[in-house]
Amino acid sequence: MKTKIIFTSKALLFVYLLLSLSLFIFQRDLLYHPSAKLNHSYQEQTFYNDNESIKVITLNQDKKNSIILFGGNAQAIVGRAPSYLETFPNHSIYLVNYRGYGGSSGMPNEQALYSDALHIYDSIKPKYKTVSIIGRSLGTGIASYVASKREIDKLVLITPYDSIENIAKFRYPIFPISLILEDKFDSASKARSIKANTLIILAENDKIIPLENSKRLINSFLPSQVTVEIIKDTGHINLSHTTKFYALLKQFLH
Question: What is the mean pLDDT of residues 92-97?
């Protein structure tokens, strides 16, 4: 009986270690879901950074104010073009395809995406009176990073999180996530370095980013700096299918 218990314990330990190793090896496959390059009629600009080419869809190039959009982890960012053109006819708009997404070269990782985002900001800033930033889901971590490092006009975070590490701990509670995870996207630690007025838009029934994680990020900001809006009866995906969503963006950024 004792031998059987020892064997079972060793088998369970082996399975646990194997699952932990698999989680470590495939963690970026779980986090990033690059979208394919889609045919479209919009103007596109290529930014070169760290020997990679980053494809950015550019709309309304002749305006005085600009917006950079960082999308979700599985988002084909070109799909946002019609709605953002309609909502912001008086802004130049930059829709960023991350490394590996939408024809951009390379493979995504946290530090690379930060570097690309700063490079894009620094490249366009001299052309405009203001630069505002919008981040959606995964992109809120990138947007928060840029806002903590550069002077921006306004910041919008759509379904944000405090950190990807905390999201992973919630989803995989039995694994040593702090040791396994390489891309942590710790937005909460950057909040106090952000000077821009910030709008946070949440979905009432978000099943991807728990509201508790969003609230921890909100609490990291100065209360006077942040405005929070919750769109009722929406989830993580269909949040942007509502008229209220675009009305909030338009009101805040105009």
Answer: 98
Look at residue 183 and tell me if it is in a domain.
Answer: yes
Q: Please say if the pLDDT value at position 34 is more than 60.
A: yes
- Considering the domain boundaries, does residue 11 fall inside one? no
The CATH number covering residue 148 comes to 3.40.50.1820
Instruction: Tell me the per-residue pLDDT of 118-142, one tens digit each, with 9 for 90 and over.
Output: 999 999 999 999 999 999 999 999 9
Per-residue model confidence (pLDDT) at position 151: 96
* Per-residue H/E/C for the chain: CHHHHHHHHHHHHHHHHHHHHHHHHCHHHHHCCCCCCCCCCCEEEEEEECCEEEEEEEECCCCCEEEEEECCCCCCHHHHHHHHHHHCCCEEEEEECCCCCCCCCCCCCHHHHHHHHHHHHHHHHHHCCEEEEEEECHHHHHHHHHHHHCCCCEEEEECCCCEHHHHHHHHCCCCCHHHHCCCCCECHHHHHHCCCEEEEEEECCCCCCCHHHHHHHHCCCCHHHEEEEEECCCCCCHHHHCHHHHHHHHHHHC
Answer yes or no: is 23 within a domain.
no
- Which of 122, 165, 120, 170 lies closest to 141, judged by CA? 165
Domain count of the fold of the chain: 1
Range of the domain at 179: 42-253
